[in-house]
Amino acid sequence: MALLKLSGGIEQTLEPGQRYWLICGNEQQMQQRFDACAEVLNPLAPGQIGALEGTGGLLSNLRVWENLALPAWYHRQQSLAQLEVRFQEAFAQLGLEGKALTQLAAALPASLDRERKRQLVLVRAYMQEARYLLADQDWFGWISQSAPHACKDLFERMTLAVPLVVVGIGAPDPALHMQEILPLPQTEVW
Known about the structure:
By secondary structure, the chain is an alpha/beta fold. The protein contains 7 helices and 7 strands; from the N terminus they run E-E-E-H-E-H-H-H-H-E-H-H-E-E. Helix 2 packs across helix 3, helix 2 (64-76) runs parallel beside helix 5 (114-128) and helix 3 (80-93) crosses helix 5. This is ABC-type lipoprotein export system ATPase subunit.
């Protein structure tokens, strides 16, 4: 359990296995709040914040393997052998193994399509053994609607044990059964 406390009167206790929707008014506010959430949560679980961004959030000058392994290796000093096992486990669940996986691991993000980048940030969160999942509305829309079933299954298993915060514009679809995070009412000082 963690307290997510942001400027503007936003305060929410995050429970494992629960889903939250942080309401934003526009795209700029959404990006600012996404970054603020990551900043607040990172000290609670260094290197274990699964940042799920619709644009992929990968560094263009690093190969796929480096993009996925570095967060866990740097913050948690996991061995490369352990990380490689998690890398292979995750992609096996997504149906990618052997030569195709080797080629993907060596690729630069610029050579990949948007869907593959979205899959990669999910695998990165898996490799990090994320204790918090933080998704933007674009990525969450993809996983909810058009992602391959194997990605959806991996995501669902991950969200059983950790809180998920989706940062989005406007209120969530009621069918998603998500708790809304709203700013607390401001009290007047007399």
